[in-house]
Design brief:
single chain; 198 residues; mainly beta; Jelly Rolls; 6-stranded antiparallel sheet; 3-stranded antiparallel sheet; 3 helices; 11 strands
């Protein structure tokens, strides 16, 4: 298991701090910082890990297992992009890029925007919507639509900074809607396997 500390960085302008340090992996929606808790976008996780020479023998294959990921992950080992994983199992062959001794691991995890929309509901309204949005079922069809598109949107310019991070024309969630799991949850581990010829 890769149990080292993780550095997690976030893009600017999406409500999260530039960088945090995690002593262990867990869902971002459980973080105490509200910018992290409600983050939506691509978070970049980085760590180093050591590979024993015995794991690198000729008849071995080594897989990197990311454990639980919400929702998809791009894997970079020792600077080599190994591709994007978007479904379980989040498992990839890394034999060709590993080396004995210290290795670097970067995982770019993109989540859903659910938590960000719920986070924005904690803030004052910026637009007027038909009352009753954020509910499921047939009743939701007549509720939650925006009454008037904001001027910045109609003029094709970026949303002004400050206040809410996201913008929708429909109320998908309420402030008390449940948050969902987000980010790299793990556990992340290396799985050596023996090559067998048939």
């Amino acid at each position: 298991m890769i149990n080292q500390k993780w550095e997690v960085s976030f893009p600017k302008g999406l409500g999260a701090p530039e960088k945090i340090s995690l002593p262990k992996l867990f869902s971002l929606h459980r973080h105490e910082n509200e910018g992290v808790k409600y983050f939506s976008g691509t978070a970049t996780y980085k760590t180093n890990f050591v590979v024993k020479p015995s794991m690198m023998s000729e008849n071995r294959v080594v897989f990197l297992d990311l454990g639980a990921v919400e929702v998809m992950a791009e894997v970079i080992v020792n600077g080599v992009n190994k591709g994007i994983l978007w479904t379980r199992p989040y498992l990839i062959d890394v034999t060709d890029v590993l080396k004995p001794g210290e290795n670097t691991l970067e995982i770019k995890v993109t989540n859903q925007w659910t938590n960000r929309l719920i986070g924005d509901e904690q803030l004052p309204e910026e637009n007027e919507y038909v009352p009753g949005g954020g509910v499921n079922g047939i009743a939701a069809l007549s509720r939650g639509a925006i009454r008037k598109l904001p001027d910045w949107y109609r003029n094709g310019v970026n949303k002004p900074e400050g206040g809410r991070v996201a913008f929708t024309t429909w109320k998908h969630y309420r402030k008390d809607s449940p948050l969902i799991e987000s980010g790299l949850i793990g556990p992340v581990r290396l799985i050596p396997a023996k090559k067998i010829k048939f």
